[in-house]
Design a protein that fits this description.
about 500 residues; mainly alpha; two-stranded antiparallel sheet; two-stranded antiparallel ribbon; 4 strands
Amino acid sequence: MANSAVNRTYADLPPLPSYQTTLQPPLVAPIPDKLLTLILPIAAYWGLSMLFHWIDTKDYFPQYRLHTPAEVSSRNRVSRWEVVRDVIIQQVVQTIVGWLLGMTEPDDLVGKEEYDVAVWARRIRIAQRAIPGILALAGMDAGGLAKNLDQSHPVLARFVRGGHYSSLETTSTISDGLAKSTAEFTAWEKVMANALYWYLVPAVQYGVAILVVDTWQYFLHRAMHMNKWLYTTFHSRHHRLYVPYAYGALYNHPFEGFLLDTLGASVAYKLAGMRTRQGMWFFTASTFKTVDDHCGYALPWDPLQRLTSNNAGYHDVHHQSWGIKTNFSQPFFTFWDRVLGTVWTGGDVSARYEKARLAAQKKADQTDDKTTITHSNAADSATDDPKPYQDEMKNATGLSAMPLRDQQPQAPQGKAELQAAGSRQQVLDDHNGGGAQVLVQEAAEEKEARSLLKCSGRRRTASSLSQTDSFKGLRDRVTGSLHGRAGSIIGVDSNR
């Protein structure tokens, strides 16, 4: 009896079309899509990196730089050659893993799209069967409501009845002379099914992949900082770039590069159920984002830096001696940092960020003092829950021996002070990466940067120029004083 009712319920569904599949032609002939998936992320990495390197060498946007060329030379504890070498090693591992991953994937086929869209249309039709019951729960008579709608809105009336569109049925004569009725989909069902198949489902897949990558990287990245052995053995290598630049984005210990980047992206691809071509764009977009996060510029017109607060300014904090144990989120969003309380709370504590912040405000015609490069507000330091940093000051045993003049910039009291103490202690723990010398050098350069900003501010106050010209004068004087012309960027620090 129940089976009979079910059969009656679904017997009037439109039939599914037949199909014949063929191999999907390559996006760029004659390169197979699986091979192109291996090539594009590497091409994207070096293409975007060299664009930023060209900007560096030409000194085109000094007002937006987070650090000076001199800092690239003096503060980084690794040579550019070592960076290029280790990035290439990681990309070789990435290519091998990608090739093995491709072997587990079937070749993409085409020709079944119309069938798949029809399957979604059927699901929409089946879902409509629940409409009368839902209306009944709300105390409404589906039959009476549909009768009132029959003349003015016939399609809506049939929707209310549970998706029974008898007027759309076509009649055909079968071989024995009998007539056969065949149901069809409505126009709105076809539109909805196409939207689901071509847009919504892929968007959900990309969303799932982004969530998986962000989650994977956050917790493993945080573990690399919270465990002293993991940090000094593996992750400290990446942090010897205290002044990040674009093609140093994947400068890692090979094991860390495999675990955090290559394996994380592969797991996200698999869990999201992506096809080869979807994975191609996902891996390439992730690479673009990672490079942009390490570019060293707070560019107000960079779309990747405008779409999310997890950008170059946000991640630059994580590379500073006072912020290493904060801002773990990457590469897309800052969700986990904010939920678990690991976002930097000290605002734009460094004078190095001031020029970039002022320049970005001017570009966007903003006057809001709350606009920050680091996407944090110093006032939050006093009010935020100190967890998980409540024990950092107590555990910073090596830092207590350092004079205050070597602990600059000084973080606001409260949570940011604890974050800075834990971060600086981690720098001291990395003896191979410079240890105390890193703090001494950064404090000296912070003092110089703040002195230059103070002098420029006094000159601006004394000037009789307009507000706009005064700002330009401040920007140009600070930019000129801090940056100068570094000549060749790629060749500096070659002896280190």
